[in-house]
Amino acid sequence: MESYEVKEMPISYSREIKLSFCAVADEISDQVKKSLESIINVAEEIGYPYELVITTHIPVDVKSDKIKFINEAFTTPGAGKQLAYIHSNGNYLIIFNPYNIYSPETSDVVHSFLEKREKRALIYNLIVISRDLLDKTGGWRDLREYEDIDLLARIAAEGGIVAFPAERYDSLLYRVPDKESFIDRFLNFRDAIISCNFGLKDIKIFHIEPFYVSFISLLLSKLSRTKPYKFKENNRIIVMEGIMESLILKDFENYFIPVTIPKLHISSTELNYMEKRSYLWNKVNKSIMEIIQVSDN
Q1: Considering only CA atoms, which of 100, 93, 118, 99 is closest in space to residue 43?
Q2: Which of 34, 63, 108, 192 is the most exposed place for a label (fewest CB within 10 A)?
Q3: Domain presence at residue 200
């Protein structure tokens, strides 16, 4: 009988990459238009086929092969992002802040990340997630605050996180609207509690709202039909530890080496919280303090 050697074949990535740049915009202001222009420049520089999918409350009469404005009813940023995800066609989604202006370096970072066909999510001045990973984890939920943390905790458990150095990550920031009713404050922090899977011990330390607001919000979270995803640690700790581990290990050097490496700005409240609640934070505290800067501005 004739025999032959079985050779291991290289993995073939035959599926073409198509990108969906997704955002939720409350209005189409001049600032948003400038942001969209910068994202189009980034997309063109990356070089793959792309589309922009923008969910908004305001009808927009624009005919474009590249930009889709989705004007369907939604009440929260989480629901808006989920709508963009549903209406998008790309096999990679790039979630951006439509009030930020993006520099040319962004295209270099994203392109290098995509070339690796990573199964993890990239956290930078935007978020890059494969559709396969979003399909596995279910996408965004109808949440007012920290909806990205709610998702990223599931992604960390399923595929993992790669963090590229930045002064801040929008996903970790708490929104403070210019005009906010007292009821909105309770509902916003209720959803923050659900997203992060906070308990009583957490809200006593993570006091971005007065304790009476936090406590009532905690009670409201118990009554909500939307329940938190639960892992060994709470979701905020999972995401923060994933980011810090990636930065300390310099995962980003596998994709693109920046000219300068900015320190991550975190608040004194965040620092105090992580020092008291995170085992990893205390275990590698010296390494973490080298890559962060405490700033309440």
Answers
A1: 93
A2: 63
A3: no
Identify the three-state secondary structure at position 157. helix
Record the tokens describing residue 17, joined without a space. Answer: 């990459």
Q: Which helix (H) or strand (E) holds 150?
A: helix 147-158
**278 found inside a domain:** no
Any idea how long the chain is? Answer: 297
* Residue 133: domain span: 19-171
Cβ-contact 98, 54 below 8 angstroms: yes
Q: 267 in a domain, yes or no?
A: no
Q: Is 63 helix (H, G, I), strand (E, B) or coil?
A: coil
Rg (the chain; Cα; Å): 20
- Furthest C-alpha separation in the chain: 82
Q: How many independent structural domains does the chain possess?
A: 1
pTM beyond 0.85: the answer is: yes
* SS3 of residue 15 by DSSP: coil
What's the rounded Cα separation, in Å, for the pair 32 and 58? 13
Q: Which DSSP letter does residue 284 get?
A: T
Which residues partner with 22 through β-bridges? 53, 95
pLDDT digits (tens, 9 = 90+) for 85-111: 999 999 999 999 999 999 988 999 999
The CATH number for 152's domain is 3.90.550.10
Residues 6 or more apart whose Cβ sits within 8 Å of residue 2: none
pLDDT digits (tens, 9 = 90+) for 251-283: 999 888 777 889 999 999 999 999 999 999 999
Question: Which helix (H) or strand (E) element contains residue 257?
Answer: none
